[in-house]
Amino acid sequence: MGTTDRIAEPWGTRTPYGAGSPWPTRVDTYLAAGTSAEDVERWVQTASILHSNGDALDIAVRDGRMVGVRGRADDRVNRGRLDPKDAFGWQANASADRLTRPLVREGGRLVETDWDTAMNRVVGTTRSLLDTHGPSSIGFYTTGQLFAEEYYTLGVIAHGGIGTNHVDGNTRLCTATAAAALKESFGCDGQPGSYEDVDHADVIALFGHNMAETQVVLWERVLDRLAGPNPPQLVCVDPRATEVARAATVHLAPRPGTNLALMNGLLHEVVANDWVDRAYVDAHTVGYDALEKVLRDYPAEKVAQICDIPVEDLRAAARIVGRAEQLLCTVLQGFYQSHQATAAAVQVNNLVLLRGMLGRPGCGVLQMNGQPSAENTRECGADGDLAAFRNWANPDHIRDLARVWNVDPMHIPHYSPPTHAMQMIRYVEDGSIRMLWVTGTNPAVSLPELRRIRAVLGQDRLFLVVQDLFLTETAEFADVVLPAATWGEKTGTFTNADRTVHLSEKAVEPPGESRPDLDILIDFAHRLGLTDKDGGPLVTWHDAESAFEAWKECSRGRPCDYSGLTYAKLRGGSGIQWPCTDDAPTGTDRLYADGAFFAHPDYCEHYGRDLVTGAPMEPGEYKALNPSGKALLRGAEYVTPHEIPSEDFPLQLITGRTLYQFHTRTKTGRVPQLQAAAPDVWVEVSPQDAEMLGLAEGDLAEVRTPRGRVRAKVRVGGIRRGVVFLPFHYGYWDTEGGSGPRGADGGRAANELTLTDWDAASKQPIFKTAAASLRKVRAGDGSPASAPTTTASAPVTAGVAPTVGGASALVTERTGR
Ligand SMILES: Nc1nc2c(c(=O)[nH]1)N[C@H]1C(S)=C(S)[C@@H](COP(=O)(O)OP(=O)(O)OC[C@H]3O[C@@H](n4cnc5c(=O)[nH]c(N)nc54)[C@H](O)[C@@H]3O)O[C@H]1N2
Ligand SMILES: Nc1nc2c(c(=O)[nH]1)N[C@H]1C(S)=C(S)[C@@H](COP(=O)(O)OP(=O)(O)OC[C@H]3O[C@@H](n4cnc5c(=O)[nH]c(N)nc54)[C@H](O)[C@@H]3O)O[C@H]1N2
Ligand SMILES: [Mo]
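^ Nitrate reductase, sequence as received from the core. Prediction below:
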């Protein structure tokens, strides 16, 4: 038993282990000052809500309040460990400025009201829009942070009740490319791999994934392998010197936006050196010849030039992945939010398929998720897919869904692909969507090109409903604000990036009159009088568990089959991986272990797209290409990004995260330990660019793109030359300053600068490839930028005080059992 300052040492103490051994337990506990374990009255089971890793934990409750958290030793995902955001983040629930009553706009101002008044406004507007403009005048923009039961209910209301095709999540900004890449390669969404593959792999390759900061506990698993006997080799593809890059055997730091070229180069080497598993490819895939033809054009020398990386490094990386015996690949936003996102992510699937690295321990691909329940948004049909991975272009699937919901098949919109979020914003802009209901997301900070977003959300003709915990930047534009209960205050299930389903139980009462999202949605359905085709209520469930039972039936027989799960089964022990059925009652570790895919034309979720243009394939084309439902090898040509550096904008801007903050900081910004570790925006600049521009650590600089400007203090760090990085966490809301535009120095939200552009196939916005300029505004006062020193933003300048947490950040660690 010991304690660690988990701001200073976010990954805690190492518990080394060797290939094939189980990952040792380390139970992390954090209790509020003045609370001891004996004071805790109840421990209430849940899992992490501030990322997609699904770390299982218990909430400590005393006198009806949360007083701490403890990792769950028995869980397959974390074996007791806590991410610093989870150790400290629960404190945000009790913030004094939580919304406690509904608000409505009166005479231009938001004023408090009762639930009846607020809901009747929402229902009244819905009904009058349905009468005058029809279902397509209503849109729903949800999140990756609610529970499965809530998404399923939302999907039923929107698709089965109102009949609008305009339903998407912020998962469009997050994991749309993961879903798209899985559909392109395997015919269906669904994570092939398992976290246990980390225990076996001899090579782990991370593509645009800063796992050290964004899946802290999964990275601890990797660090523990690296510290043990026969450690794996790591390959890292990232333009910044992340902790992952620092630990890697080979680090490739490509020019942003060139991922597809890089992947084609790696695959070219794999083919040229005959590292292909011919037997696997012949038995289980289609499309090899076409892929091989594309790859011919990407010899290492040419690719090294496009990506501006040393050719010997590219070859070294190819050798490592090409000769691996147990290869695990992970992919995240460095690919998904960058140029040619889906095409590049698909090449990682191709690498795994060409090498026959699927379905065995240590082998596989994790097309990662980001948000805690992004997986459920996709599965439950709240993100522009239909529930349980049904194919909107397959009439049999629509009929089947109509059977489950007892509605007329013609009532479920399937005349065109579901509308994606960026298109919904466009429809709001041009006035065809008149009502937008935003749940659990803060688009006024997280969508690209914020000046435009503010104009779109601020229109008089738009009726905007915002359902949140706080009066966010987005809520400021709302006509009705509905106060929601959150994690710890309501019950539900959610599924992490490796298909592990966890139950999250209610630990404490929500503040004031705030209500669980599920209750608000069911209330809406009843008030609106939504019925099935026999006139009975469309939504037949009344609480979380009955909603879960309904969702289970909807998922039965589909790839994400929950039918073998119950709340009782999820209580007490570890989370369980879907599919979980009568035949697989303890869940399923890896998909496709038997080389059978969900890709049969009658079963698949999608018929595929052209990866470069995004044009959908016809059902007949797909049937001809893949009649027996094998995995698909799909090649794509690299084309240059739309916005490339110019004389006026000579640099490339990328954006992303830091370990200590979550998104737009509505939670982590209200947590003292986390906020203090990364209190304000900074801009990362390479030593070469800093010297050229006369910039030093702590100087105030202005980053410009054609869309706007941001002022931030300079961190001279380990980023690639020619590239600048901004964290996107900082909107104009501030814990210190109150809401409203912040500071005289101009904007600080990274999305003032990003562009309205998206990947052709997944429609995910491109947050990581833009042209920018940088100039000095004024010299610093000697104090450094407020960027953490422990992470990718580590300074190269000597004398910057290290990031520490101190007495309030000590986490207890108990190793062994
Ligand atoms: N601490 C923390 N953890 C989180 C979150 C958080 O906000 N904070 N959010 C969660 C969510 S929703 C998500 S989606 C995940 C995201 O997790 P990640 O994808 O790991 O995080 P990002 O910082 O967005 O981007 C990862 C890396 O992409 C690199 N990159 C930028 N452009 C390119 C490029 O063109 N090519 C390549 N190869 N790399 C590039 C960046 O340098 C960055 O280090 O994190 C989850 N976990
Ligand atoms: N430039 C740039 N922009 C990005 C990214 C990037 O890397 N760079 N990343 C993108 C990605 S991957 C993501 S996921 C998005 C995230 O962007 P957002 O979704 O806008 O970010 P959050 O701050 O997580 O917003 C979630 C909101 O839900 C509220 N909330 C939390 N729990 C609940 C609940 O139980 N019920 C309700 N009703 N509300 C709740 C929170 O208070 C918060 O306001 O940002 C995207 N934008
Ligand atoms: Mo995300």
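The two ends are 11 Å apart (CA to CA).
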